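Take a sample.
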Amino acid sequence: MQITIKYFASIRENIGFEEEVIYVKKSLNIIELKNKLNRKEILEKNVLTSVNHEIVNDDFLIIDECEVAFFPPVTGG
């Protein structure tokens, strides 16, 4: 199963790259993906996650060829 992962804004800056593709043997949810990636920047509770351009919760099940994006919450001033 192939998953494309994109990182935006401060998360991308901290990780040092914008995108990666990983391969997993079975479907997993967002929490499981975050734990598998083992990146503290995306394990924070306030990080937003989208799958195929729609905001999802951490229990969302990822299937083959999904695009997962992690980004910090949008703030204004």
Summary: The chain has a mean pLDDT of 93. The beta strands are 2-7, 19-23, 28-29, 48-51, 54-55, 61-62, 66-71.
